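haha ok so turns out i had the wrong file open the whole time. this is the CORRECT one, sorry everyone. sequence first:
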Amino acid sequence: MNKPSKRYQESKKQHQEDKTYTLKEAVVLLKKMPTPKFDASVDLHFHLNIDSKKSDQMVRGTVVLPHGTGKKVRVAVFCRGEHERQAKESGADYVGANELIDRVAGGFLDFDCAIATPDLMKDLSKLGKVLGPRGLMPSPKTGTVTVDIKKAIEDVRRGKVEFRTDKQCGVHLSVGKMSFDEDKILDNATKVIDAINEARPASVKGKYVLSMFISSTMNPGLRLGI
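then structure:
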């Protein structure tokens, strides 16, 4: 087992593992912790009281971060004809129909978001096992299956991100970068927490959010009050 780095050990000294922090307290502390040489991400982690095997308890949605994610989002658009022109003019990184589908089927996954027109979804369905586990499969529920390609790309560029529960009933979502000032991280994190709470399935009984942590890349997580 690898020994924790000196930077990580120093970060651990600055927080109490058994303490529950307010969001503001946690963000202030995160900003004081030693950081790696790159611009680390700030992430929220939720453990939800749901049954991941029940379709009516799947927690999934989108949220627009007021200050964006802090990183360039690479967008792939699956479309043909006139929509291809719109996608290219709107700044999509990769555009195409069956040739792009074949490329992804062959292992190409250098994009962060996938958008598709409804007529391509039948052909795109064969990529379900490739895109689905990575959270990249376009869906009408998240606005990524649409004929309004321009708006979908603009939403993504503005900071629209998707969230969904994994098999362990968790949700993990970036809310910015360590280079953001405290207020921007707070705004983004608050927006995500509100979105997760609003997405509570009607069939969930009792406590919904079992635990919630905020962390930065390569640093320990801080437990937040629920």
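The helical segments are 6-13, 23-32, 82-89, 98-105, 121-124, 128-131, 149-158, 182-198.
again sry for the mixup
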